[in-house]
Each structure stands twice: as C-alpha cells, then as structure tokens.
Specification:
about 400 residues, Aminopeptidase, 2 domains
Length: about 400
Amino acid sequence: MDCVIELRHELHRNPELSGVEVQTAERIARFFEPLRPDMILKNLGGNGVAVVFSGTAPGSTVLLRAELDALPIQEINQLPYGSLHPGIAHKCGHDGHMAILAAVGLELSANRPDRGRVVLLFQPAEETGAGAAAVICDPRFTEIAPDFVFALHNLPGFPAGQTIIRSGSFTSASRGMTVKLFGASAHAAQPETGLSPAIAMAQIIERLSNVPLDIAPVEEIAFATVVGAKLGEKAFGTAPGEAEIWATLRTETDAAMEQIVTYAEKIVNDFADFFNLAVLIEYTDIFSATINSSRASDIVRRSSKKNSMLELERPFRWSEDFGCFTAIAEGALFGIGSGVGIPELHNNHYDFPDEVITPASQIFLQIIEQCLAGSLSDYAGQKGVEIWGKQSDLQSAHG
C-alpha cells in the first residue's frame, strides 16, 4: 500500500479545481499505465479518466467512481504533503477516494476478474455538479457502458472504516437559485422618482426562508437557505435600482425539487409583479438526488460484513452528482467512516485518513466479486436497452 499512500500524498500536494484537473488526471494515468489495464480512456467528459480491467469471459460491467477535483479552500493545517497551491486544497477527501480506487486497481492488475469487466472511473467536476453528466454524455462512454455503478464518500463523525448505507434516497437534490430584480435608481433625496427593489427583496427573502413550511411534507427533507443578497452600492446619494438574492434549494427527492422550484419561482414573480419590477431567475450547481437501488444496497451490505455497518434512517442533506449514474444503471452510493472527532468535510483543517484506504478498497473488491458472479453477471444483457434509453434522456437534458 505504500505506493498508494504516496499517490494520495502527491495528489494532495497538487490539488486542482473542478474542470481544470489536467495534472491530476495525468498523475492517475501514469499510476495505472505500468499495471497494464485493458484500456485507459482519457479526457472523458473533460478531464475524466476511465481504467478498464477485463476478464476472459463475458459478463457484467461494474463501474466504480472516484472524483478528481479539489476545493477553493485555503489549507491551514501543517502537513508534510500540504497543498502547494494557495487557496486550493483537497478538503473533501477526493484524494483519498482516488487512492482507494488505485488500491483496487493494484489488486485487479494482479488478479483480473474471471468474467465481465471493471471500470475505475476518475470523474472531473463533482463539486460543481457538472462532471457526471459530462462523462455520461461523452460519446465514448458507450465503450464502458455499466450494468452496475458504485461509489463511496468518506464521512467524518463516523468510526473509521464503518459502512453507512441506505436504500432509496441517499443524498439530497439541490440547486443554487439566483434572483435578479430590476427597477430604476434615483437620487436618495428623491427616492420616489425611481423604483427601488428593497422592499420586494426583503419580502422575497422572508418567504423563501419559509418555503418548506408552506409546501413540504413533514417527513421529507425540503428547505431553502438564503445564502446571500446584494442591494445597490455603498453610495449614500443613490437609491438602488437593482438587487440580487442567492438561495440554495434542497430536497430529499427530485419530485420534491420540482415542487419547491415551482413554488419559489411563484413567490419571486408575484412580488416582482406587485412592485412593478423586472425579474430574472437563474440556476447553477444543479444536483439530482442519489437514489440507491435495493439490490445494489444489499450488495454493499453483504460486501461490508467484516466492517461495522450503520443503516441511515434519513438521507444526507448534502448533494452528490453520482445520482446521474444511478439514474442510468443499478447502483448505490455509500459512506465510509473516516473517524470520530476529526474535522468535518470542507473544513480547512480536514485531511483524509490513510488508514481508511484498505478497508474501503476491500469493500469495493467484494462488490466486484458479487456483481461479476454468475447470477448477477447474467443481468448485463437484460439491462442494456433500458440504460441507454435513459442516457439519451440525460444527454437531451444537459446537452
């Protein structure tokens, strides 16, 4: 495992943001080239890298995913392998996720599957929600069409090596909503000659903050968080004519997201009409809910028998773009505990614990063994048409 840990530390020293993970992808490709995989696809959906290990007999294709990108966060903890790039660091543990798949690749290089094939996908731009869809919509993705898809995310606050799983929604849908209001500026001594969006802005903020109370079922995660706003400039002689509001919408399911979006837009448009303001609504960082199938979740459970395991009662509130993969193939996202008492994800003191690499890679290897066994491997031919019908839908939605 020494070479895997060295890779993790090298990746940590050289973090890259979403969409520009060029050197990270090259480091991954260089690591795998001596292992003689059957295929390495580069520049998949941008900077993605797919490494394929095939068996000698036909069977299912199992895709395991890790993420390439880091975060725009300044690292302040002192590490011998600390980030060399100011303001950028692996504070979500994607360096560890890549190392876990590297450990899986080492084992597959020495012991290829008897049947089927394994795809180790290193995906770009997870943090912005753009990477998974870009990979799936890449025409070359058809070369690695998966029957099963799995991924994990390390989770501080849970015992190191513990498996966290749930059938159904595992992570929430979310999107960033930007509301732009346009009126007319005026001299501050004669505000009545203009059209200030100030009162409309205040009332929209209040109503958006109460959206869940208005529409959401009690038992389901659904809420809006106003994360910022801007009204005019610090110019005491001018009454403002424009305003912006930024909010994050978050729900347990994609159906609830459609409902909360419709309701939030109605709130905004009603107040804009009442105050005679023009309005523009935009969305960014769009994540669908990640839905774990019952069968894939059971595969994770059986693969974690040597580990402690926790069944989640409710989905996590944070979001992941792995839902794009579980929408086109049977699969599951699960958690791997990274330790109690360590800093949380996206905290500038956080660092992925190397001791989690081995238990996490062993779970993935057990997942591969189960998916490529005879009864599940025969599933491959039954699923292909349905998968690619859904992929076409996804490409239409994002293309």
